[in-house]
Amino acid sequence: MKVNFNLNGRYVSYDITPGEYLADTLRSHSVLSVKKACDEAACGACTVLLDGRPILSCSFLSARVEGRNVTTVEALQDEVDEISDFFADEGADQCGFCNTGLALTILALRKELNNPTDEDIKHFVAGNLCRCSGYQSQFKAIKKYLEAHK
Amino acid sequence: MEANRYLRPATLEEAHQILLQDPKNVLLGGGLWLKKSTSFANALVDLGALGLDTIKDLGDVVEVGAMVSLRDFELSPLLKNIQGGILIEAVSQIMGVAFRNSATIGGSVAGRFPFSDIITPLLALETKLVFYPHKEMTLNDFLSFKGRLSDILTHIVIKKSQGPSFFKKVKTTALDFAVVNVAIANIDGKYRIAIGSRPSVASLASKSMEVVNNAKNLSNELINKAAELASEELLYASTGAASAEYRKALAKAYVKRGLEEVSK
Amino acid sequence: MKTKVVNQKTPSVDGKGIMMGRPAFTDDLAEANSLIVKVLRSPHAFAKIKKIDVSKAKALTGVEVVLTHHDVPRKSFTRAGQGYPEPSPHDKFILDEYVRYVGDEVACVAAINESIADQALKLIEVEYEVLEPVLDYETAYENKNIIHPEDGIHEMFPIGFEPKKNVAAAYDMHVGDVEDALSKCDVVIDETYYTQAQAHAMLEPHTANARLDYHNRLVIYTATQTPYHVRRIISQTLDMPISKIRVIKPRVGGGFGGKQAIHGEFFVSLVTLKTKKPSKMIYSRQEVFESSYTRHPMRIRMRLGAMKDGTLKAIDCYSLSDTGAYGEHALTVFMITGSKVLPLYNKVDAVRFGGRVVYTNHVSAGAYRGYGAIQGNFALESAIDVLAKRLNIDPLELRRKNMMEEGETSPIFAIMGEGTEGTAMDMDTCKLRYCLDRGAELIGWKDKYPFVKVGPNKVRAVGMAIAMQGSGIPYIDMAAATIKLNDDGFYNLTVGATDIGQGSDTVITQIVAEALMTSVDKVIIYSSDTDLTPFDVGAYASSTTYVSGNAALKAALKMKSMLIKEAANYLNSKEEEVVFDGEKFTSKDKVLTLSDLANRLYYNENQHQLTATESYVGHKSPPPFMAGYVEIELDTETGEYDILHYVSVVDCGVTINPMLAKGQVEGGIVQGLGMACFEDVKYSNRGKLNSNSFLYYKIPSMLDVKKLTTEFAESFEESGPYGAKSVGEIGIDTPPAAIANAVANATGVRINKLPVTPEKIFQGLNKGK
Lengths: 150, 264, 769
What we know:
heterotrimer; A: alpha+beta; 5-stranded mixed β-sheet; 5 helices; globular; B: 3 domains; 5-stranded antiparallel β-sheet
C-alpha cells in the first residue's frame, strides 16, 4: 500500500506494508537520524515529531501517518545546532545515540510547557533513556536552553 | 509485524463487521505493544476516523472517547477537576510523554492490563463503559467479565465526583510497571478502595470498604483494620517483581496511609 | 602547568554532528541492499543438535545463504577482544553442534529482506537432544553435566582451564600468612556477598556489516571497542590473511565493555564472502540481553581481621565467578576483583585472594566497566563498614587509618597483572584522603551519619565507599598515533584509539593541540580503521587517555621538533634559535608562518611530507581513586527508598577535558546505582532470561537520581599525558557498597545480595516478626 504524508517539509508517497513501522520506513528512506534502540516503545531513542508532538516511531504504524506531518532533526537543523551547543557546554554529549530523539523531545517541551519547574522538565524528558551521561548534564543543558528562550 | 491489510473504517458498524469476520482482524488502540503480542494480523483496524478522540463535558459526567490519547487525557482540565486530580496523577506516571501521545485510554482499559495504572483510579471512581453496539457496563463489571468481547469500547464515562483522593504507585524506577497500585476516593463521605497490579488487574477491596463505610468516623484502629482486610481479602501473588507477602504488606501500608489522607 | 587546551572547557569534536543527525553509526553506513543476516537461536539452555535440516529455508525465494555448524570452519577461538595471546580460553566455534545457553547460535540465514529472513529461520528444522543444564554457578564445579565436553578447545597459556570440571579459569595468590594473621586479630568478620549479572544496556544494539571492496578485500564496519582484535580473530579463524581484511569502527552508541568482544562479525563476513554481496546484522534488543554479554555474577567471601584499635591486619578474599556458556574475559575480570580492590588497604600484614571461574548454561559473561572491581568493591567496602560497626569505630576513621596514601605501594601490584604477573608501582598520585574528607563535607556526613528521622516512617541516611581502578595494562597495551602536516598548516591525526562515546577522539585531539600549541579545530582526528590508523588495543582497561594519549603526545612532540628543524632550514638559523608559538617560527628578526612553511613543503621547495608516528606502552597503571557518598531517604515501613544525592570526589590526575571527565564519572555513578538498586536479572527455571527487555530490566531514568555532585582533586600524574590518569571506569565502582552501607545505617539491615531492593529491606526489617 502507499502512505502519503509530509516528511520534513516535503510531500512524499512511500510504498509500505500494512504492518510496517515508521522508524523502519524513515530509515529505509535515508532519514538516518531516527534510531532504533529497543523496538518496543520503552526507551525514546526513536522519537520523531508527528504534527509537532513526540511519538515513538518504532511502534507507530507507518500507515497511520497518512495526511500528517512528520518531522525529524534533518528539518530542524538550526534549532538542534543550538541545543547541541548547550549540551557541549555541560559535557552532556557522549555516545550520542539518544541525542536525536532527545533533541526533538526538548523542542516539543519548549513548545508545550510554559515556565516549567525542574520536575516538569524531568518528567517531560524522562522517557528518553540515556546510559552514558547520568542525566544531570543533560538536565542542566536543557534548563539553560529553556532559560535562554524565556 | 506481518499484516495483510490496514483499514480505517468510516463507521462503527463497518468496524464492528470487520472484527466479527475474522479473529485475526485486530483493533488498534495506540498499537504501541501490538508487535509484542501479535506476530501476524489479517486486518489492522484503525478507529481514527470515527471522532472518538474527544473529551466532552456532559453535565454530571465527563465522556472520554476511546481514542483519546493518554497524553490528552493527562492534559484535560475537565478530568483534572474530578476527585482532586487523581486520574491525572495516575496517568502521568505511565511510561513517558511520547508513549502517552500514542497510547489510547480505550486501549488501556479494554486491554484490562493487570499492571494498569489508570484502571485502578477509574475503578475507585464511578466509571461506566460504553460499547458498540449498544452495551453499557460499569468498569467493575467489565473487569470481572469472562470471555471474549467482540463489542468495541467507544467511550468511558466518568462521574464528576469531588472530594479527597489518594493514589500510590509502588515501582522500582520511575518508568517501571507498578509492583502494586492503590487508589482511594472519598466521595461525599463514602470511600472506594481499589488495588491493582497484585499482579492481577485492579479490584475493589469491598470488605475493607464496608468497614470504613459503615463507621461514623474513622479511628486509627478502624483504619488499621480496614488496611489489614484489604491486604487479605484480595488475591496477591508472587512474580519476579515482588513476592505475594510483600505486595500484601505494601497494600496494607498504603491503604492505611490513603485512608488517613482522605479522611482528614 | 598552565595549559591552553588541556584542562580547559572544550566541546567534543563530534557531539554537534551526531545530534544534528549526520549518518555516523554502523548501521547508518551499511550499504543499501545489504543482505539481512539473522541467527536462529537455541530455545534450550543446554542441548546437542542431532539433526539440522535447512532445505526448506534454503528453498525460500529471497534466501541466499544458510549456514550451520557443518558449513563453517572448525577452529576454536575466543570472542574476547584482548591482546594476543589472549588470557581467555579458545572455547568458541563459529557454530557448534552444542548449544550452551538459551539464545546461543544454531544457524545463520541471509536473505534479501528482514521478513524473508524471519520466515527462513522458522523453516529451519532442528532435532535437539536436550541435556540437563547447569543453572546454578554454586553447583557448577565438578558437576556431572559438562558444558564443554568437545575437542579442539584450549587455553593460550596456563590460566587454570579445566573444562571437564566446568572451570574456565582459576587463580590464587597470597602475601604473608593470612590464617596466622587472622588468628592474632581481636576481631574477625566473615561475610559472603553476591553480585548479579548486570546488562550493559547501551542504547545502540550490536551491529556489523560487511562488503567486498573493489580490491576484493573484506571490509567490515562494526560497532566494536577493539577493531584490531576483531581483524586478527577473523583472520585466524577463517584462515584468511590479515591483509585481506579491513575493520572500521564508526561512531559507536555505547559499549561499556559489551562491545569488547565479537558479536555478528563472523556471520556477516561469511555471508559476504560466500555471496560476494554486502550483508548486515543488527541485534534485536532481546538478542542484546540474551545473546551478547553480561557482567560476571560473583559470590565473594570476605574475611577481615583487625585489632581493637582499628588496625586492619588481614584480608582473605575468596571468589566464585560465573562466566556463563563461554569464557570471554573469565580470568582477567576475576583477577581485577582482587588486584584493583584489595590494595586499597595496603598496610595489612597478610592478604590472600583466590578462587575460580566456572562455566554455566547462562548468557556468556564478559567485559563490563569496572571489570571485577565493582564486584570486589561491593564486598570489601561493605565488609569494612561491618567491621567498623563491630569495632565501634566511625567508618570514615577506619578507612583513614588503613587506606592507601600517596607515595605508598602494595605488594599486590607486583603480583597481579591482567592474566599475567603484575607491575610494581608506587602511588605517585593518590589523593584518597582528600577525596574522603571532601566527600564527607559535601554530603554533610557529620550531621547525617548514621541517620536522621524526618517523619513517622521516614529516615534519611548516608553511606559511602572508596574505590580505585587502573589506567591501561602495563607492558601489554600498546597505542600509536600518526600526525601529518597539511598545506595551510593544519594537521591530520590518526589513531587506533577507539571512541565509543567516551570522548577519546576529543581528548586525544586536545592533547595534540596543546603540544603543537594550536587549537582543536586545526587537528583533524580520524580513528579506528585498521587500514589507515596505527595500532591501538582498543577502548578498555581505562586506557584511551593514558596510553593512547601518551602515544599522541609523543607524536605531537616529534612533529614539533620536525617542524622546528624545517623552519630552521628555511630561516637559515640554528634549531636552538628558532621559537615556535604554534602559528609562526621566529628567529632573531626573521618570521615564517606555519602556513607558509607547510605550503612550501608541499609545493615549492625541498618538498616532502612531514609525518610523525609514535607508540606508547605503559610501564605502570596509575590508579584513579575516588570516594563516593550517597544520601537516601528510606521508608521504614515498606523498605522503599529514594536516592537524594550522590557525591563523587575523584582523583584521576589532570582532567584533559573537565566536562567530559565529569560525564564519565556521573555516567558511571548512575550505571553503578542501576546495579546497586534497580537492575535485577531473572532467569526462568529452564534457564531462559526473563529480564530480557527494557520493560523488565530497569535502567535508571532522569527521575531516579535526584542530585549528583562531582568534584576532582588537584592531582598531577607525571607519567600521564599532561598529568592525566584515567576516568572511564572509576565512577561505577562505589555505588553498590555505598547504597548497602546507607541502608544499613538507616535500618540496621545488611543486604549482601545485589540489587538492594525495598523488598529485601522490608524482609530484613521484619525478620522474626
